[in-house]
Amino acid sequence: MTDRLTVDTITSDQLDALQLQAARMEHAVQQYAELHVRLEDAEAGITAAIRQRKAAEERASKAERAEAAIARVRRLCELTITASVRVQAVAQARDTLTALDEPKEQ
């Protein structure tokens, strides 16, 4: 014998319990689907944030390298002004420093 309910053997209380169970399962499936969408959105947001952070780090690194190069040029110009006997070299070094000190073009 089987414990499976049939139309002829099910009581109204058992039917109500089955319908409640089915409604709860349907609700759980809907919640799962909504949470899945939210998870995908969160993952996409995290991926975008990681990309933005990497881009910002690359820009910062590039800026640091540029600042270091400018510092080296300044040091070379200062040494040229201090130690060179060539008038043209000193003038060029001063012009370079002046150009470095001018406001940045926007």
Task: Write up this protein.
This protein has helices spanning 12-83, 87-101. It is an all-alpha fold and 106 residues long. The protein has one domain (12-101). Helix 1 runs antiparallel to helix 2 (87-101).
Give the key terms:
mainly alpha, rod-shaped, 82% helix, 106 residues
Compact description:
The chain is an all-alpha fold and 106 residues long. It has helices spanning 12-83, 87-101.
Number of strands: 0
Sequence of secondary-structure elements = HH
Mean pLDDT: 93
Low-confidence stretches: none
Strand content: under 5%
By oligomeric state, this entry counts as single chain
Query: Structural class, judged by helices and strands?
Result: mainly alpha
User: What distance separates the N and C termini?
Assistant: 87 Å
Number of domains: 1
Percentage of helical residues? over 70%
Sheet with the most strands, sense and barrel status = none
What's the number of helices? 2
* Gyration radius over CA: 37 Å
Using the alpha-carbon principal axes, give the shape. Answer: rod-shaped
